[in-house]
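Risk register update: the risk that structure generation would not scale has been downgraded. Supporting records follow, first protein first.
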Amino acid sequence: MDLDKIISRPNIEKTMFTEWMTANQLHEEARSLTYAQFPTKWTWHAKEKEWRKRRGGKKTIGRIYYAQPTSGEKYYLRMLLNTVKGCRSYEEIRTVDGVVHPTYKSACYALGLLNDDKEGDNCIKEASHWASAPQMRQLFCTILLFCEVTDPAKLWQTNWELLSEDIQRRQRRILNFQALELNSLQIKSLLLAEIEHLLAKGGKSLKDFPGIPLPDSSILEERAILCPRNETVDQINTYIMSQIHWWQSLHPTNYYVTK
């Protein structure tokens, strides 16, 4: 599907995005801003469907609709709109140093936006402002599965804390033990186990991504994670680990253990 042709049809509805390009055609001073920056200097008038130069000192933050890395050209178009300034057409958005690139992705490459895993890292950092921790973990796995990550270890190391924000809270709820305190190694192992589970759905494993550690099974079996306050904790933990599937062992409940 040709995104440019569809959006460029004469009868297409005017939007904030299409009229951003119109404003760039009509006003030279508008061309110093990216699409994301535009609302800081210009105001959108919905009734007339046009941008007008902002009056007064009120500050506004612009935001572009989120696009998954798997959404193809829409994702790369969005990436460009955070970078390029003053574009008056879709062709100009794809133009780098006078060269019109055939796709938004190739334009991103020409601008260096896809080098050094910057693409995936920026995607995770931005999503952290609105996405839940489970959504963040799914996004991380999506990037590993469908994007060309050159340094998986670095992507993991710089983002694991964002992916694990709810791990301790979840374990407290599962075990009904609000005083539970997990250390960073325990949190990482629980997180890695969940990521391994998500990757398996896509036919991959953490072993396929060099540098990302594997879950530490010895940590996952620790009493602080499984059963922190029972007088017969060692016996119960041993029995649980022998009876249930490894993945289910991260969430021990009466549903799995019937003895």
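Supporting record for the second protein:
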Amino acid sequence: RVVSSAAKEVMMVDPIEAKRLAVEQMKQLEAKAKFKRQRSIEAINGGWAMLGITGCLIIEGYSGKPILSQVAGYLHFLADFFDKYFPSQQL
């Protein structure tokens, strides 16, 4: 049993209840730390995404080709490369 005043001072605590409260507080702290880490990771990923889009737009402006046609060209190049060096075998 926890007896507390308005200032949240604990006067008397049952050891079992204290352990339960400590576990709850630890879970809350871990959840806050996990949320903070996820926000940090998301901010980093967002920064890289913006950098990538900026690079694509610069290349599009320089070459005059839209981004999707450039990607299609890269995929076509990869398909030709794999077809040349790893030809499909007919059974």
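DSSP finds two helices and two strands in the chain. On this basis the risk owner (M.S.) recommends closing the item.
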